[in-house]
Amino acid sequence: MNGEQAYIRWLRQRWVAHPRVLVGPGDDAAVLTWPSDRSVVVTTDMLMEGTCFVLAQAGARRVGRKALAVNLSDLAAMAARPVACVVSVALPQVGGRAVAEELYLGMEELSKAFDIPIVGGDTNSWSGPLVIAVTALGECGPRGPVRRRGAQAGDWLLLTGPLGGSLLGHHLTFTPRVREALTLVDLVRVHAMIDISDGLSTDLAHLCQESDCGACVEAALLPIRPEAEQFDDGRSPLEHALHDGEDFELLFAVSPEDGASLLADQPLQPLGVHLYRIGSCRSEKTLTLILPDGRSQPLVPRGYEHRLD
Length: 309
What we know:
Elements: H1 4-14, E1 21-23, E2 31-32, E3 40-48, H2 55-58, H3 60-77, E4 80-92, H4 96-113, E5 118-126, E6 131-140, E7 156-159, H5 170-173, H6 178-187, E8 192-195, H7 200-211, E9 214-218, H8 237-243, E10 250-254, H9 256-264, E11 276-282, E12 287-290, E13 296-298
Parallel strand pairs: 4-5, 9-12
Antiparallel strand pairs: 1-2, 3-6, 4-6, 7-10, 7-11, 8-10, 9-11, 12-13
C-alpha cells in the first residue's frame, strides 16, 4: 500500500521515544515538556522544487536533510538549542511514497545528530512539484536569544567559515552551526548574529538595519570557498563570496576585546572551527567594501530575494 496511512505507519515504526516528547506522532498534536524559565524560539522554512532545488539533481534524501538544516541554522543564529520540529510535505502523486521515505531519511540524519525529534506534521499529495516545510522549536539559554539587533559601532564582525560557490553542493550538505553558536555565547557576549542564507551583502545589511548602524568589510580578510573560483560567469570569486548566499555560516558582532580573545584561541574549542574577522561595525549607516588594493566602494546588497511582482 502506498497511501498516506501506510506512510504514517512506516514513520511511526521508525520513531524513537524522546524524553522531551510526552505525546508524539499518532494524535492530533504533539505534546512537549518545557522548562518554565526558558523562552521558546520558533522558526519555519519552506523549500519548493524548481526554486530551492531540482529534485532530479539533488535527490530527495539531500532535500530532506537541507529542509531541516536550514531551520537548525535559524535556531543557531538565535543561539537557541533545538528541541523539536514538525514537517509538512506536498508530495508528487506519482512516486510520492518513495520520495517521502527518502525525505524522512535525510531529515532523520540531522534529527539524530542534533537531538531534535520530529514529532509530527502533515502529508499531502498533488499534481504539482515537491514542497516541504519544516517548523522547528528551540529554547534559549540563560542569556536569552541573540538577535540581529544589538551590534554597536566599533564591534568586530566575525564569520564561522568561508563563503561562495555554495550552489556547487555546499547548500545541500552544510552542517548548521548550532554547536558553534552555543559555544560562542558561553565564551563571550555576542551582540548580534545572523546566518548567511541570502548572501553576505544582503544579510549584513539586515543586521545593520536592525542594529541601526553601518559596517565596513575588508575584502582581503574575507574567507572564500574554493568552489567560488569554479564559475565561468564573469563574476569574480569575491563577488560570489559577497552575494551567492546559501552558505549558512554565522555572521556575528562582538566587542574588539572579545573578538581578539576568540581569534587568539584558534580554532574554536572544542569544535575545531576557525573564525574569521572580516570587518567592523561603524556609526555611519552605510555599507562599505575595502578592496585588496586599499580602494573603498559601496557594498550594495545583491544577494537572493524572492520576487513578488
